[in-house]
Amino acid sequence: MKNSALILTALFVAISCGGRKASVSAIPATRADVPEFNADSAFSYIKHQTDFGPRVPNTESHKKCAAWLSKKLYELGAECAVQHYSTVTFDKTELDCYNVIGSYNPQSTTRILLCSHWDSRPWADNDPDPANWKKPVDAANDGASGVAVILEIARQMQAKLPEIGVDCIFLDAEDWGPGDDFQGQHLESYWGLGTQYWARNPHKEGYKARYAILLDMVGGKGAKFCREGYSIMYSKPVVDKVWSAAGRLGYGSLFPPVDGGYVTDDHYFINNIARISAIDIVPYLPNCKESSFGPTWHTTHDNIENIDKKVLEAVGKTLLEVIYNEKP
Ligand code: AHN
Ligand code: ZN
User: Fold this and answer.
1) pLDDT digits (tens, 9 = 90+) for 209-241
2) DSSP 8-state assignment for residue 32
3) Residue 302: CB within 6 Å of ligand 1?
């Protein structure tokens, strides 16, 4: 819409100037041609994932979803790679894991990396009802939402490639970290196991990206994305770029220029192990009594009913704005 309006304005100026010298450059700050993010499509990608059931590692639902993710990226025109590996958790469980990667403009040496974990937490241990603490999480928001936004971006990239290279990575075994009842030491390395694997064993030798953007829980009702601590610490210019893109699009209240907390999330390992500047788009709701990530975090209520398409849309549009304005 916005782009066609710009073109129309350009035409009008050109025509109304008649024979006099008129040029499109007289129009203030024309933006790059940015595709339209479709939130219904993104929502359907969440539904597809939650329909498998909780994607907890070592389950059939998880295996089936991994296969679907790679098939989907392939259908969307990406060059695909799947990493199949095992990893061991804090409670000594061996997990059968898959990282799924799709690349656009694979030959380009200027790349950005879009990341989301796709696994579901095995226990809803923050549920208000203790009877649910051992049940797995549907993870519509905490897992599926980030994947869905990236898949919709992939669909847009298939229709019109950006100038730079883009890699989409769906990371496994993010969410098998210990709960509050854990008696041992709470280590950062208990989270983001799939990312740690990828960071030590990238899908391409010597893989580098200009920067990485992690999406975690980007579809919750009432979300607000503040500037996460490690993101500022390691990658402030990327935070500035993304938050100012959101502001330009009118999403300043969803992406307030306000600092949030520090989150041990996949981006932490991308910064520290892969040494790629990585930021996290993750909710920060300091006044939410259930969790600062939002009311459904690690509960049985993290399901499709509590997804807000408007939030998906704001995040998706912001990312497309960033991607299509990035110069090689
Ligand atoms: C911690 O709570 C230590 N990290 C949160 C990372 C996370 C879990 N993201 C989604 N689920
Ligand atoms: Zn989680």
Assistant:
1) 999 999 999 999 999 999 999 999 999 999 999
2) P
3) no
